[in-house]
Amino acid sequence: MGILGAADILALQEMPKRLQEDHDNAKYLVTCLKEVKGLEVYEERQQINMVFFCLKGYPLDSGSLVRYMVNYDVRMNGEDNGMMRFVPHCYVSREEIDKVVQLMKDAQ
């Protein structure tokens, strides 16, 4: 079995066991992001581990926010059709979610 095959087996055998954790973290992130001024969080779209939001009066535009977050080792994409998203996954903890939310609150 090759390296990619081993990764596939791990993904199929282990990751479904922790999928609920990703979904719970996404719900937590939605709740926290709703406290950030200048964000419109699409809570109704949170049915998986993706959290969608857009900037509505936020102090940074999309490109500036992406650059700001990179300075703190947070990787994110810019807007796509006016919408942005975060995706909690197996390598994202609650503490890291708290860090991201605090960074979002502190941005100017």
Kindly describe this structure.
48% of the residues lie in helices and 10% in strands. With 108 residues, the chain is mainly α. It has one domain (18-106): Alpha-Beta Complex (Aspartate Aminotransferase, domain 1). The termini are far apart.
Query: What is the CATH-assigned architecture?
Result: Alpha-Beta Complex
Strand order of the largest sheet: 1-2-3
Percent of residues in beta strands: 5-15%
Q: What is the top-level CATH class?
A: Alpha Beta
**Order of SSEs, N→C?**
HHEEHEH
Rg to the nearest angstrom? 15 Å
- Cα(first) to Cα(last) distance is 50 Å
On the 0 to 100 scale, the average pLDDT is 87
Count of discrete alpha- or pi-helical segments spanning 4 or more residues: 4
CATH homologous superfamily assignment: Aspartate Aminotransferase, domain 1
User: Main β-sheet, in a few words?
Assistant: 3 strands, antiparallel
Low-confidence runs = none
Helix content: 40-55%
Count structural domains: 1
Structural class: mainly alpha
Shape: globular
| CATH topology category name | Aspartate Aminotransferase, domain 1
- How many strands in all? 3
